[in-house]
Amino acid sequence: MKNEIVRVGKYKGYTYVVKKYFHSKEEISATEELFNKGLLNAEWFCGYVLIPENHTLYEKDYNYIHENFDIDVHGGLTFSDRMNFSDFFECWNNKYFIGFDCNHYKDNPKIQDDKYTDDECKRLIDQLVKINKRNNRLLRLLKGLIKIFMRED
């Protein structure tokens, strides 16, 4: 399986990447029946958002995120890990990303294309911004309560 970066963007201070994945002719011929039945796509897109170190979800596994946060993105989150890129994008090497793919049953790369995936990345970022704001407010409230209780002793 091969992949290439097709879009890179910045939205609300977050970096995101859209990659196109595709199977080689050999991979397709080896599992031709699955492709013919529409169970596998020969190509598809995935979206990834770089999670900054100061974010609530930094280094959280996507399963943990599913269980504890209400994230709505195409097909759900399917990736959380550090990524490495080519020399051109070396500044992102070993940075933490979360992501999703558009290679689910009945997905169509003509519909869930690079523009669609780009829009889903932005929708994911909107949710990440809300999560971080909410958690930062709760953290400030908790710190305030701790100060109040500490003074009472």
How would you characterize the overall build of this protein?
By secondary structure, the chain is α+β, with helices and mostly antiparallel strands. It is built from four helices and five strands, in the order E-E-H-H-E-H-E-E-H. It has one domain (2-152). The chain has helices spanning 25-30, 32-36, 62-68, 114-152, and strands spanning 2-11, 14-22, 43-50, 79-83, 95-101. The protein is elongated and about 75 Å long.
Q: Topology, pairings included?
A:
Layout: E1 2-11, E2 14-22, H1 25-30, H2 32-36, E3 43-50, H3 62-68, E4 79-83, E5 95-101, H4 114-152
Distance between the ends: 63 Å
- The low-confidence runs, each spanning 5 or more residues with pLDDT under 50, are none
Which class of secondary structure composition applies to the elements? alpha+beta
Beta-strand portion reads 25-35%
Number of helices: 4
Task: Record the strand order, biggest sheet.
Answer: 1-2-3-5-4
Judging from the principal axes of the Cα atoms, what is the shape?
elongated
Q: Approximately how much helix is present in the residues?
A: 25-40%
Number of strands: 5
Domains, number: 1
Helix and strand run = EEHHEHEEH
- Main sheet properties: 5 strands, antiparallel
Average pLDDT confidence is 84
- What is the radius of gyration computed over CA atoms, rounded to a whole number of angstroms? 19 Å
